[in-house]
Amino acid sequence: MESSTSRAVAPSLLLFAILYGGMVPLGGFLGAKQVALGPLAVEAGIFPFLTLIAISSGIAELHGRAVADRLVRLGFIPLVVAILLALFVLQLPTDEGMYEPAKEAFPIIVGQSWRMMAAGIVAYGVSVSLNVWIFARMTANNGRLLPLRGFVAAALSQIVDTLLFITISFYGVRPIADLMLGQMIAKVVLSAVMVPLLVTAVVAIGRRLDGTAAPEGALA
User: Fold this and answer.
1) What is the mean pLDDT of the chain?
2) pTM value?
3) Is 216 exposed, middle or buried (0-12, 13-18, 19+ CB in 10 A)?
4) pLDDT higher for 143 or 24?
């Protein structure tokens, strides 16, 4: 018999919480590769990270800022667990029969300095929380301009993310001004391209799953 204290979880919240939890550690893993997009160069971790941004904004739109903030806080769990597991696996002895190029590449791809690990945790918490806050503050228009609100919140939060991550990771080790500027430009451009589409899709899928209708003119 179902407990009277149990509460039903909205289908959209369950789906996107699962996706969110998977994307958090994936961003750090894919960040080991730098990709060239025309004249722009950016770490590949930006793709799952912008997906996190879109999901958190979509959850704020569907279920409110408090739920989105809780999702961001819970995201620290898979992030920290992934880091601890990576450190544990790196300490284990390597099988001598392992494919030689993979044996040499694995510590480089998975291993990070303590500064970069700390930078990833801090940048994640601050930037995604800021994204939710900005997005939620822009709801006075009764749900209108969803793609624009998603982009503005994402772009501003990605600027802060870059400031924090690059400074914590590389300050005092290498010049950071040019690196920081290039990363900011690339992330803002990608935010303009990806986030409006992603956040619109998240909200549309969420409303379909939950059986709720969009407010009149919500995408205008």
Assistant:
1) 85
2) 0.86
3) exposed
4) 24
